[in-house]
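Q: Give me the 3D complex with nicotinamide-adenine-dinucleotide.
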Amino acid sequence: MDKRFEGQIAIVTGGASGIGLGIAERIAREGGQVVLFDLAESKLQEVSKQLRDDGLLVERTPVDVTDEQALETAMGDVVRQYGQLDIVVNCAGIIGPSATKIADYPLAAFEKVLKVNLVGTFLVTQCAIRHMLPRNYGRILLLASMAGKDGNPGMAGYTASKAGVFGLVKGIGKEYAQTGITVNGLAPAVIATPMNQATAPDQLTYMTSLIPMRRLGTVEEVASLACWIVSKEATFNTGFVFDLSGGRATY
Ligand SMILES: NC(=O)c1ccc[n+]([C@@H]2O[C@H](COP(=O)([O-])OP(=O)(O)OC[C@H]3O[C@@H](n4cnc5c(N)ncnc54)[C@H](O)[C@@H]3O)[C@@H](O)[C@H]2O)c1
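A: Here is the predicted complex, encoded as structure tokens.
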């Protein structure tokens, strides 16, 4: 495998599971030093040990992306320890209620999904930009979703939060377009990860039926595109949300 990320430092939020873990592993296999940020402490410990036992440069920090103070401390520690921050991938996210129409969707659940998926992503990106500006280099990737582009019925909180992530990418990308920092997004259709275990089976069947390839995407497929977006090769894309949808997205 190429060593595209040798000498680079990456933080991956939501790195203990699913897409975040897959992207983190691929960056590390390509020579990067990765620090996993996640809430799930025991999972974090387990996966980082597995990757380290495999000879990869992977560390971990338990952190809640909605806790501004904890996040600032954790990211500051990474920069102090390694002297730089090249890549930040925002994968921390929750799905919230599914197969639930707005008439039955609890406000508290809506607020929680927005807090993790949108406010958390805002905080991580804000903190990352502040650390990247002095070196005038950085690659920031935000995980959106086809739900935010097309709208998935039965998931008002998730859909609204991911539409918000589209807005963040487009706005922030333009803010820093004349620096060496790019901010892009990725909008997958359904990917086979533990997140889908919390999705109602009817909802999952509906979302898969919208994919012309008629299958779920894989974490490896997401990691492959994500790693190009956060590599030094990707120099002329910012403020853009890439699709990864088995043919679902056509615009
Ligand atoms: N799986 C899919 O079908 C799919 C499709 C489109 C977009 N996405 C997005 O990709 C990202 C990753 O999804 P996944 O399928 O890998 O999910 P996952 O559930 O496997 O992993 C999400 C991780 O985020 C962590 N997390 C949740 N809240 C957190 C918080 N407040 N602070 C820190 N960590 C927190 C969880 O502990 C978990 O390890 C999410 O943003 C999700 O919305 C997923």
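A quick observation: Residues 13-14, 16-20, 38-40, 64-66, 91-94, 116, 120, 143, 145, 188, 190-191, 193-196 surround nicotinamide-adenine-dinucleotide (CB under 6 Å).
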